[in-house]
Amino acid sequence: MIADLISGRRRFDVPCTVEIENTFESLGAHVRLDGDVKIAPGDEVIVHGKPIEVPYGEKVVLERRATVIQAGPIERLWTRMTGDLEFMELCEFSFSEETKL
To answer: What are phi and psi of 9, to 5 degrees?
Structure first.
């Protein structure tokens, strides 16, 4: 808590809606925060509750509580500066066929 005060982080709870789909067409999970909550680079969202298991072929929509931890100015700047580099680590590009003669 003291570290949050020093770093400028702000923490608060908010209700949220969790949607999980496990079907042939789609496999995904989405969290929608209720209210007018803006999420920016460096922020964290922690959804509370028991782990959710969705059987194949089903979609589940649940109401939960989430804790939003907003980043301080230095953490937000660092995230903006390094975010593109971390994204590029996920990409692998190849422009050659690697054929052997």
So the answer is: -75, 150
Q: How far apart are CA 46 and CA 33, in angstroms?
A: 11
Where are the chain's structural domains? 2-90
| Residues 62, 29 contacting (CB under 8 angstroms) | no
Q: Which helix (H) or strand (E) holds 4?
A: helix 2-7
Cα 18 from Cα 63, distance rounded (Å): 6
b/e 13-36 (16+ beta carbons within 10 angstroms → b): eeebebebbbeeeeeeeeeebeee
Q: How far apart are CA 38 and CA 41, in angstroms?
A: 10
**Looking at per-residue confidence, does 95 or 24 come out higher?**
24
Is the pTM value of this prediction over 0.85?
no
- Model confidence at 97, in pLDDT bands (50, 70, 90)? low
How many angstroms separate the CA atoms of 14 and 91, rounded?
34
